[in-house]
Amino acid sequence: MKIDAHQHFWNPARGDYFWMPRGDGVLDRVYGPADLAPALARHGIGASVLVQAAPTIAESEYMLGIADAAPFVAGVVGWVDFEKPGDIAELRRLSAHPKFKGVRPMIQDIPDDAWMLRDDVQWGYRAVCDLDLTFDALGFPRHLGHFLTLLRRYPLMRVVIDHFMKPQIRDRSAAAFAHWADGIARIAGETGAFCKFSALVTEAEPGWTVEDLAPYVEHVLRVFGPERVMWGSDWPVCRLRAEYDDWRHAAERLVAHLGPADQARIWGGTAAAFYRL
Question: Which CATH superfamily is 2-275 part of?
Answer without folding.
Answer: Metal-dependent hydrolases (3.20.20.140)
